[in-house]
Amino acid sequence: MYEEWGGAPSAGTVTGLARVCGRLFMVIANDATVKAGAFFPMTAKKVIRAQNIAIENRIPTIYLVDSAGVFLPLQEDVFPDTDDFGRVFRNNAVMSAMGIPQVTAIMGMCVAGGAYLPVMCDHILMTEGSGLFLAGPALVQAAIGQKSSAEELGGAKMHSQISGTVDFREPDDDACLARIRALVDKMGSPDPPVFSHTTSREPLFPADEIYGIFSKEAAKQYDMRELIARIVDGSEFEEYRAEYGETLLCGYARIGGWAVGIVANQKKHVQTLAPGSDQKRIEFGGVIYTESAEKAARFILDCNQNRIPLVFLHDVNGFMVGKDAEWSGIIRAGAKMVNAVANSVVPKISVICGGSFGAGHYAMCGKAYDPRFLFAWPTARYAVMSGEAAAGTLVEIKLKQLEREGKTVDEKVKKELFESVRATYEHHTDPRYAAARLWVDAIIDPAQTRDALIWALEAAALNPEVKEFKTGVLQT
Predict the structure, then answer these.
(1) Distance between alpha carbon 242 and the CA centroid of its chain, in Å?
(2) CATH match of 3-184 with 3.90.226.10
(3) What is the dihedral sign for C-alpha 257, 260, 266, 270?
(4) Which CATH fold topology does 207-380+440-460 show?
(5) Which of 100, 270, 274, 440 is the most exposed place for a label (fewest CB within 10 A)?
(6) How far, in Å, are 75, 104, 215, 394 from residue 422 at the CA level?
(7) pTM of the prediction?
(8) What's the rounded Cα separation, in Å, for the pair 270 and 368?
(9) What digits encode the pLDDT tens for the residues 22-58?
């Protein structure tokens, strides 16, 4: 992104969960090697996403600040809107009011908007040689004709001795980081979790076997139970309604000792009986049918009733279509599942393993449905429909348009057009494309799924508040 401006790797900021003195923290750090830590549009959104995760899960936060403020050539996309730069400072104030500890270290030049973030936090540290001012020396001279050095205007000594803005003045970065650890070490313990937790047990099967079980090919089958067995404690999965709605697996397990409810797309085709008859039919793996949507909706209600966090494992092509599906009430059942997901009050964590397409993505707790964390495997594909389906649809529309104009297209041109559209669509469905736009929180190694979920569940448990569960009107 932002190649016309020389690029902005990682949007010029590094965010993530880390342990400091044994305690879980959100860390947000400017990368001053990228445009002096200036905020691009995606920088603001990335910081806000990290803050929102901290707010939802009550995670204490550390900021390592070295920022020139807004990247001025793109100010119209950084400054004015509700999810832009100003939201960062609003979140600072809200987090403080919620009792979420925030520690900030000024470790470089922090100018204009970049100066507000640290001062909105609970504890402020500043290293020698750093600067903190609303306007730098050059702008001050241009605006009011006053000449002063950076140190006089906003150095660490001035802010610790004269303005009283900073709490701790440190000689260098190492001393500053040591002081942060000393402060963290003395923070009180968080409230006890409300979610069930016991001693963690390793799965019976090694995680790297996931590579040989999973298939990224949409047409290939695999048993999602085999993946679950390599993620959950003791490989124990208490499957809910195992013989009904079999293209969605639902069940209870523990991950890292934390109780969870799992909703996962089964990629094996299953033979079942058509509703209301004894006629056998095949249900395709990765497709949500009426029965599976109803089962999942009920299971999600149960998890909310019993305060059990939800984990969604995506490899979904979408909901079933056709006359039989419509007659069975697929829209009604899908609406029930979406309602249950949307109104869930327990933590929700999503992992996109393979495809996650169309309304199936929504029903499986996509980004719009407020998962606390959304992870993706490198094999993930994330869009309204697959590249093949989209290319076929868009090419057909283009050909109809050309026909109306009296033009004919030979097979070679059709193929070239199809491949061109498919390649563009495949690029847009790549998880790296999604991650660059914050549609997913992290791309993870499949073998590290269990570790990522344990971190996420531990973070979610820091927030002991669980709201009253209400669904409103359910389609029945």
Answers:
(1) 30
(2) yes
(3) positive
(4) 2-enoyl-CoA Hydratase; Chain A, domain 1 (3.90.226)
(5) 274
(6) 34, 46, 21, 9
(7) 0.92
(8) 30
(9) 999 999 999 999 998 888 999 999 999 999 999 999 9
